[in-house]
Specification:
- It is a single chain.
- This protein has 414 residues and is an alpha+beta fold.
- Helices cover 44% and strands 14% of the residues.
- The protein starts with a strand and ends with a helix.
């Protein structure tokens, strides 16, 4: 056994009836001294000598590996991806990772990454960018969109980057050498993804969902965290400000207030029109509370950041919140509820390109058309970097194209 010793703690012992006590095998080994005092690691309760022997050896090996229960060079990619998903992503939900991101990564790992690379050793994959490149080329041929191919590669790259730093299981990330290259553009998908709601179309939508409708304020807000706004704590009408501190996220059937994506908490200046709509919502909400009385549904934020709704006559010792959008009886409205609004716009108003995220696109593009600094747009929309703002949200609209023509005409006419 070397450094590990085992013994039967009940050897030669008898119970009160004079019967020999059953074996109680124990392993023991010495650890590094603390403050000059000797320390030992010990565990008993094993029925056989072999069980204690095996457990002692495993515990000693784990101790010598600083608590690690495996050698990185022996770890396969499937086990590592499970480890990364659990310890790097799931363990940091709400602190850099959203629940939906974790679900998306889990799906990509299960459907694409494990079948392709799960059987390989992690240490071998770091030297096989050609293997990853071949896999990417196959994904391109399978009919997936460029966005899907790119996001799947990003998932693998994020996992392997974590294996480099901070874990140091491997020395390089092979995904950094992989290129997606050209792919056919799906015109229909691109049109849907890049759709910007023109002013006249937005006016039609607001006519269908006017002030007082459950969807008026979400339509007017035009940011991704709309349903995470608490009117009691996030609205400061005296300073014309609206704080963005949460997003509403569904996790295993329960709604939670979570930090915005990329922890992009921020304060937005609001104009007179939106401020007036918010003030009128506060007055309307108070009126409905009085009308419904004990039957009004109040909303509370629990210590674990989950959302609780219950009747007004039931005392709840937690923080009450006023979500931006509720039904007149106080029932919570969510991003899932907004799907009804989108369906009406698709079928009743004849606009199949509309989707909730296009409000964000429209917000950023309208600001860009008016010459607002991209850095200001980035901060207002809560983007991680300016590249996202420039490449994804501020599209070349007809207005922008005409402005470019007018500027060029002005220069050459001088």
């Amino acid at each position: 056994m070397g450094k590990v010793t085992i013994r039967n703690r009940n050897a030669g012992k008898f119970d009160k009836n004079g019967k020999r006590k059953p074996p109680n095998w124990e392993y023991r080994f010495e650890t590094a001294p603390v403050d000059g005092k000797r320390r030992q690691k010990t565990k008993a309760g094993f029925r056989t000598q072999q069980e204690a022997y095996d457990a002692g050896n495993a515990a000693y090996a784990q101790y010598n590996a600083s608590g690690r229960i495996f050698e990185p060079r022996d770890m396969n990619v499937a086990d590592y991806l499970d480890y990364w998903l659990e310890h790097a992503v799931k363990a940091n939900l709400g602190r850099g990772y959203a629940y939906n991101t974790w679900l998306d990564y889990e799906r990509k790992i299960r459907i694409y990454l494990k079948p392709a690379f799960g059987q390989y050793r992690l240490s071998a994959l770091q030297n096989a960018p050609d293997k990853i490149q071949k896999w990417i080329d196959q994904l391109k041929m399978s009919g997936l969109s460029r966005n899907m191919v790119s996001n799947t590669l990003s998932c693998l790259s994020a996992a392997l980057s974590y294996a480099v730093i901070p874990l140091q299981y491997i020395s390089v990330n092979p995904c950094l050498l992989v290129r997606i290259g050209r792919m056919p553009v799906n015109q229909k998908s691109q049109a849907h993804r890049e759709y910007v709601c023109l002013p006249e179309e937005f006016s039609r939508i607001l006519q269908r969902f006017p002030q007082g409708s459950s969807f008026y304020l979400p339509l007017m807000t035009r940011i991704g965290e709309t349903y995470g706004i608490d009117l009691l704590s996030d609205l400061d009408p005296d300073r014309d400000e609206l704080r963005i501190t949460h997003q509403l996220a569904k996790e295993n059937g329960t709604w939670f207030y979570r930090p915005p994506k990329y922890d992009s908490c921020r304060t937005l200046k609001i104009g007179a029109t939106f401020k007036k709509a918010l003030k009128e919502e506060l007055l309307s909400r108070k009126k409905f509370m009085m009308e419904y009385g004990p039957y009004y549904t109040k909303t509370y934020l629990l210590p674990d950041h989950s959302i609780l709704q219950c009747r007004a006559d039931i005392p709840v010792p937690h923080q009450e919140i006023w979500p931006l959008s509720v039904k007149e009886n106080g029932e919570l409205l969510t991003p899932e509820t907004f799907k009804y609004c989108a369906r009406v716009i698709h079928h009743e108003l004849g606009n199949p390109l509309f989707h909730s995220h296009c409000l964000r696109h429209t917000h950023g593009t309208m600001l860009a058309e008016q010459g607002v600094n991209p850095k200001t747009i980035m901060e207002r929309l809560g983007h991680k970097d300016i590249k996202t703002t420039l490449q994804v949200y501020t599209f070349n609209t007809d207005h922008m194209q005409q402005a470019a023509v007018d500027a060029f005409e002005f220069v050459i006419s001088q």
